[in-house]
Amino acid sequence: MFQHDTLTQGLEVYRVGGAVRDALLGWPVVDHDWVVVGATPEAMRQRGFKPVGRDFPVFLHPYTAEEYALARTERKSGHGYSGFEVYASPDVTLEEDLSRRDLTINAIAQGPDGQLTDPFDGRQDITRRLLRHVSPAFSEDPLRVLRTARFLARYAHLGFTIAPDTQALMRDVSQSGELGHLAAERVWVETEKALGEPNPDCYFTTLNECQALVTWWPELTAEETLTAALAEMLSAPEEASLPLAHWRYALLVSVLSDEQRDTLAGRLRLPNAVAQLARHTALTKALLHEPLNDQRVLHWLERLDGLRKPAQVAAQLALVSQLAPQHQASLRAAWQAAQAVSPQALLREGYQGAALGEALRQHRQKAVANALSEE
How many CA atoms lie within 13 A of 42 on its CB side? Predict the structure, then answer.
């Protein structure tokens, strides 16, 4: 149950979506979303709610910053995630608003008295551990293919599966070409969330099974490549300075060639930090694939820009501790030895310009060699 505050007093407000679903599953409820029935945008603004976005009648509570959306219906009018005409009016019912949602487990509302409105048997599907679409309108929004795969990544360990008829709709959407109209940023948002879930491999295997992987991740569709990529992804280090989702992505694509990895990063319009971590992770794996020597280790440190950006080497050493712990101490000692070489000392010896750079590299390589020989 929940109580109205002064701003929502007199409004017909329901808690909806993930908060209701996770409470029924016994999961911690972090975020609350609300739907308001029978109100107008003007009435919301007069109460102090702040409108956000241009396409949907959504408002932020001025004190809690939680989202309050007016009950609405949607009609497909174009391609992709944003190709919808939205109708929001006081005459839109709660059931009509719930009917536009993706999965039955997300189409449950809770009133202030705790009573649930569940017109599509979402509670029963939670009991049955089933991800099932609300209506055939599921296929109008291609993003729902990714969302359903993401929910399986979250709940597979609880025994959830995707309903066969929902799988069929996901396949139909994939074959229609609609996935190609999604914005790359939206695809990455869903993928990043899935990579942080308990079973991220389920996201990619589900997309592959419904023929969605080929649209955005064609580099991973070969069976051997996908199998190897998923195995690598699940070896991600628990390294707190970087998000687990980013480590998992970096390891996932580490089985690809440099060209494939960069092409994929460009297609998904990845944040620079994620694309860079993927490049660095591939460098580290390549280093560990052959016996260590001073030349290869110094090249690794230079490519990581480790003498100017030590955090980047520290992150890769965390990966080394996961993949090849026997080499962590040697690589750390080599890094510290290279850092100890003083450009100022070489300047005092008379080195300048290109000669200084060459001398600096030679001294660093010698320092790395000494460090490796002592381990």
Answer: 2
Give the chain's mean pLDDT: 92
Cβ-based neighbours of 159, under 8 Å, separated by 6 or more:
129
Give phi and psi for 365, each to the nearest 5. Answer: -65, -40
Architecture label for domain 129-278:
Orthogonal Bundle (1.10)
Q: Please give the Cα distance from 13 to 115 (Å, whole number).
A: 12
Task: Using the CB atoms, write b or e for 107-136: b if 16+ within 10 Å.
Answer: bbbbeeeeeebbbbbbbebbeeebbbbbee
The Cα-based distances of 127 to 19, 98, 131 in angstroms read 17, 19, 11
Q: Rounded CA gap, 127 and 165, in Å?
A: 18
Dihedral angle of Cα 274, 206, 212, 31, to the nearest 10 degrees: -60
Residue (of 49, 92, 52) closest to 74 by Cα position? 92
- Alpha carbon distance 34, 17 (integer Å): 8
CATH number corresponding to 1-122: 3.30.460.10
pLDDT score at 30: 84
Confidence of residue 74 (pLDDT cuts 50, 70, 90): confident
Burial 202-224 (b: 16+ CB within 10 A, else e): bbbbbbbebbbbebbbebbeeee
Phi and psi torsions of 51, nearest 5°: -70, 145
Which among 119, 109, 200 has a CA at the least distance from the CA of 153? 200
Q: Residue ranges per domain, the chain?
A: 1-122, 129-278, 290-375
Copy the structure tokens of residue 173. Answer: 């959407």
Task: Show the tokens assigned to 88.
Answer: 């929001």
Q: Radius of gyration (Cα) for the chain, nearest Å?
A: 26
Is residue 94 within 8 A of residue 13, CB to CB? The reply is no
CA angle 198, 284, 273 (to 5 degrees): 60
Task: Give the pTM.
Answer: 0.89
User: Using CA atoms, how far apart are residues 178 and 192, in angstroms rounded to an integer?
Assistant: 21
Segment 118-141, tens digit of pLDDT: 999 999 999 999 999 999 999 999
Between strands 67-70 and 33-37, the pairing is parallel
